[in-house]
Amino acid sequence: MKFIKGHISLIFPLIAILLGLEFFIVFDRTTDSFEKGLQEGYSMIVVSKDEMSIDDFKAWDSHIEQVKELEKSKILERLNMNKDKAEKNSFEASLPNFYSLKLDDYLTVDELESVKSNLQKSSNILSVETFHSAYQSKYELFSFIKFSFQTFIGFMTIIGFFLIVKQMEVWNFLHAQRMKVMEIFGASLFLRSKVLINMALIDAVISAILTSWLFYLFKNSWVRGSQMEILKDNIEGVFKFSDVFILLFAAITVVLIAVFLVVINVKEE
Amino acid sequence: MPNVITANNLTLGYENDEEIIKNATFSIKRGDFVFITGPSGSGKSTLLKSFYGNLAPRYGSLVVGGLDMVGINKKNLQELRTHLGIVFQDYKLINEWTVEKNVVLPLWISGYSTEVQETQAKRLLHHVKLTGKEHKYPLELSGGEQQRVGVARALSKNPFLILADEPTGNLDEYSSNVIWDLMENACHQLETTVVVVTHRIPMVFNIPYRHFTIDENGSIYEVH
Lengths: 269, 224
Ligand SMILES: Nc1ncnc2c1ncn2[C@@H]1O[C@H](COP(=O)(O)OP(=O)(O)OP(=O)(O)O)[C@@H](O)[C@H]1O
Ligand SMILES: [Mg+2]
Hints:
The structure holds two protein chains of two kinds. Chain A is α+β, with helices and mostly antiparallel strands. Chain A has helices at residues 2-41, 54-60, 72-79, 85-94, 109-120, 133-184, 189-225, 229-233, 235-238, 243-264; strands at 43-48, 64-70, 97-103, 125-131.
């Protein structure tokens, strides 16, 4: 009973930290394409008479980071015109140039308007369209959720560390006498801390396995049954087998640091 | 006989406190049996601590087992300690280990095989009259029995030097006699050097011994 109690009080905060870590990884993985999608939706379409290079655009506004030319043939395809090839070619030649612009940052509506008006100063540019209003609020919400989530994980990690250090103080108290006796009889630092290292490693392995198992369950029952498209679309990202090793590595690192802190704090009397 | 402990103008003190042992010069040879007496607080335990490197000399020199204790490094100190047998007044047994495991702690530290450990444990527990208690835990034993375990532990690796701080402090006569017999034998048969701090030298003692005493001022004299 005492044995279990001692272990639970280390395993519990360790699992809290590992869950935080894994959620962090999974969140990043599953929302990555979503976030990119939001970023891409946040673009400008420019129509120009003559061809323009990126530098031509940059000369008008420095926020412009990338320029992608939209192929005219694709635009024609979409229009689905019922014309023969020669007609199509001549029509294509008469079309202006279409560009999709990527900006270097997330600009406010006012800033976007200023980019737009800068571009319109060019006599070559026929029209500028921005697509932001729908994405802006969505992206801001997403950023807020991501920020809150990561802050929460950060706090969980700090509290977890705090609890582990507390438990280590208990261990320190429980093991100090034995380590002192061993030291008097000439045991090396490694030998003195062997028992602690073994206990800590066992707890690290248990915690990593439990956390992996929880995520495995999460992936295979909850996510599969849920209505959340973003998770279902990225279900392979929810838990990967290689995550077991990431968790194991993190757990072992945390406990070894903790053990080391305990051992160096045991002083001979 | 070669010197096991040599002190020259040895001065000891804790951190920035006043000096406790002052200018002690003496030598202890192989096979010597030395009693150290003196009033409470005179520095007997302090002197013993300096012998196993728990307190570094403030001034003067101290050589134990050929090692200079002034500025001794960790590795040498660990090595020295594996060849000492130390007995404490408060036993300092490991309570979560069995009697048997406690006895062979020095062998375990030096990496002896389990067979050697078991044989030694059996032999030593027989000597300290604790056969049959090998699987008990220290807190299940009486004070006298615990100290006999402590003495068995000190002897388990045939140390060249035994350091004992009031080993029979408040033990019954039977346990005290077992302990003195063992130390006499180790000294007499194996030429182990023994240094014992005590407030009372046993009435019956079968081998020749030396007697150092520390006065209230921290000076050490040999009583002849
Ligand atoms: N760890 C320590 N830190 C500071 N001072 C100490 C420490 N241990 C002992 N002293 C002081 O050193 C002096 C000598 O103590 P020591 O324990 O050596 O005496 P002793 O001769 O063994 O006494 P006793 O017969 O009561 O065991 C005492 O004044 C004590 O207060
Ligand atoms: Mg004392």
